## 1
Amino acid sequence: MEIDNPDVKAEVEKVFKEYEKALVTNDVEVLDRLFLDAPTTIRYGGGENLYGYAEIAAFRSARSSSGLERTLDKTVITTYGTDFATASTLFYRDNAPGKVGRQMQTWVRMPEGWRVVAAHVSVIDAP
């Protein structure tokens, strides 16, 4: 299995940037599109455990659109073969001084494009 094929990695980096832009602008339509619409899709958030696409979409539609701006750091995207990737990043928000957020996503290439099938977001005290 080839790890970090440059063409595949560029595809995932592009869709990750699309996700990030949608996140900070609260573009719920794009965020929903980038998660796999399946009962097996999971998102563990800062204060919620969401099982299945329906729960994730409901959370997104009810979430406040304020305070979403953030700065990313140490983003690592790794591809495995042509259809599987992980994205890991740290993030910082001005409205959360002294905290560091951690985000991990599992991406899978589906017939309709790259989709998140599992995600984890948490915030801890900055070291």
## 2
Amino acid sequence: MNRTTDHQSEISAYLENLRRAIDGLSVPDLLRVAELVERTHLDGRVVYTCGNGGSAATASHLAVDLAKGARASGAPPLRTVSLVDHVAALTAWANDVGYDAVFSGQLEGLAEPGDLLLAISTSGNSPNVLAALRCARGLGLRTAGLLGAGGGRAAELCDAWVAAPAARIEEQEDIHMTVAHLLTRCLRNTVRARAVAPLGAPAERHR
């Protein structure tokens, strides 16, 4: 077997699958999720993110992008909390209650009505993600999801969700990261439109 040829075949197939998945991405569904993020910002509320494994990395990445990458002078920043990054809290809930409660347990002490939980799951069936979505709904939060091709049970618990229309987890995670960047760009455009002063503008001197 020619290993180089084998790698080229794998790379070509992966990229082709990814192109098809991007072409199949529902822009209307993505816009509905973006509208929830923007509404949360407009209301001065908080976006919480969560996920497992690769989706945890995306949840963390999305939280920092929304908080830092969508800022503009003259407009308040979006407040975001990644529920995957507090290791002490994660291990405490996992050890004392169970892994299913690692996100919902944190939400119960932090979230308020009008906040948004943005859950990321390729299967849509992760027990701790489902528990977080149920908890969020019970607390009066809005709910959104970046999910796999079928949505899973999480789809029923989301006010809006966008599917990654790919067969394999790696490609789904790539799509979710693309969606995360698109959500950030959409929010950035909205925040800049609402800004009352250009970035870095000096304060007016008293006369």
